[in-house]
């Protein structure tokens, strides 16, 4: 149901629709401004935020540099604790592994913990094609799934919906998938949450198989960590007989001690909480307690390629907190869907083109979906210099076919700027003809003048003025 | 003291009044200002659009143009940040040792105007007179890359007659973003319109900034909307005196 975004138009076209949708703009503006203010307060409480941020960056950098070693250590630890580790090079392989694992249990439905990795690979669609129903149990993911919609935010997938829209979706759709919404359901948050609780409880108690992701995987012990707010994750991770976790290979950290940093920075950056309500940790299987079978699917899906890029690899430090989305002025106006990926916003603009390549129209447009204002870098708890990576990816895209005209124009401008006399002559010509300049530009310049006037061209350039001044001063000096 | 003015290509061609104001202001403070004519553009448009290699000759040109000056002063946070943040990167990724030499030599000598005034000259009251209500938009590169902090507003507060009104959502980007403005015009204009709405809510007659490229975008929207508010560079306000008011 949560589509895989194939055939998305380029970002500017997709964003145009959302920019002119007042309800969407209001929903996202309200939500992002609320959470960004709270985050700022939660972060300001800590005297050592800068040190935590630096530590998070260093831990991730170190782990990525020795990823081969830590992944093998993780596999050994998980196996020793009674789990089974599977390696998936890409989305298809991961989907195949999970489908076969579910089939082997004889079940035809699974409950799901909110997980970006399974969204990324389109697991729900793959399971559906195999006749297996996957039920999202995170409230926002449930809203998205019931609405046959797509997530538009990493942490708050239904951020683009308001209460009234959610009530309508619950009333209309819940009955088709299980327990229907109560009669007379209003748009009161408490009532909506209760409707979801009743609907989901049925699924938790029935499910034999759960699918999750992981926020962190500890190499030294083979422990997986899921951080959440609603308790639905805890249900999925403890009630079913079989647990299948799909996690990107970059989610590994060397030791338990490293969690000290991220369990502080992640909740404060994402939900602006000092501590998140539920932190579930499990190590393989434990007889008589929790799932009897545990499978870990380690997902590459473009991560090794990303790791090979010196500048771009910092994107793999991301802990999916969404702070960059919540401060991004472009995300706020374009909305999450315009990014054509389960990873929207600034982090999506550098992650998707690296994981998927820059060949498609949408992926080639994502590095330009930013004014390079730098607000994202400021709030990132692992100090990913998103603007730096964006510019780096633009360089990659500019090498591709389709940028011939732009490359020529940039080259010509650089040449003119390397010849001040040519530049000065051009400026003089422009000044002489300034009354003839059109107020609206033709061709690509229309993108500017559609909604903005051009400045009036001055009678003379600064260069000319300065020369005149110098001459006057010299003449005055010799007199 | 003798400094080199890096006027920037935008000011040279489109906003000479800002560069002229910078010269008058600095001369009034006893600084001798040179304009090395070999200067053109720092290369930011090329670099930020993904044309790093086309930027290299401009980096070398900047190095030549400003050789021998202890202080290079520019009335643009964005262009100062281009030199300070990106020249080292261009040098690191390029193969020409001259790029490294330029970067190492120029980076510590490059000052944005308000940094030069406050940090080097040690002045906040520049003896200006500007009897109007003003609101200030801190452009992103000055704010986040250079960390200009309250230098611009300290200078503005010291201007005689000037009433500074805080701009709501001041630290949000105006939506210019170089080629972003034409590659993503809808989002760019939506951001600009929100900025202009916030500026209008202050009731100020002047929306002041320290980067004319942003002001070109904001001013372009103000003009299109027939707004009575005027976008004006900080240098032009600081250059005004009772004897020589704004023309």
TrEMBL record, chain A:
Gene Ontology molecular function, alphabetical: 4 iron, 4 sulfur cluster binding; metal ion binding
Record carries keyword Flavoprotein: no
Protein's organism: Streptomyces mesophilus
Residue ranges of every copy of the 4Fe-4S ferredoxin-type domain listed in the record: 315-384
Source organism, top-level taxon: Bacteria
PANTHER family, per the entry: LACTATE UTILIZATION PROTEIN B
Keywords from the named record: 4Fe-4S, Electron transport, Iron, Iron-sulfur, Metal-binding, Repeat, Transport
Boundaries of every LUD domain copy: 73-285
Chain ranges of the Lactate utilization protein B C-terminal domain: 399-470
InterPro entries: 4Fe4S_Fe-S-bd (IPR017896), 4Fe4S_Fe_S_CS (IPR017900), FTHF_cligase-like_sf (IPR024185), Helical_ferredxn (IPR009051), LUD_dom (IPR003741), LutB/LldF (IPR004452), LutB_C (IPR024569), NagB/RpiA_transferase-like (IPR037171)
Biological-process GO terms, alphabetical: lactate metabolic process
Protein name stated in the entry: Iron-sulfur cluster-binding protein
A Pfam family hit: LutB_C
From TrEMBL, chain B:
Cysteine-rich domain sequence ranges: 3-83, 134-218
GO molecular function: oxidoreductase activity
Pfam families per the UniProt record, alphabetical: CCG (PF02754)
Gene Ontology cellular component terms for the protein in this record: cytosol
PANTHER family the record matches: LACTATE UTILIZATION PROTEIN A, UNCHARACTERIZED PROTEIN YKGE
UniProt protein name: (Fe-S)-binding protein
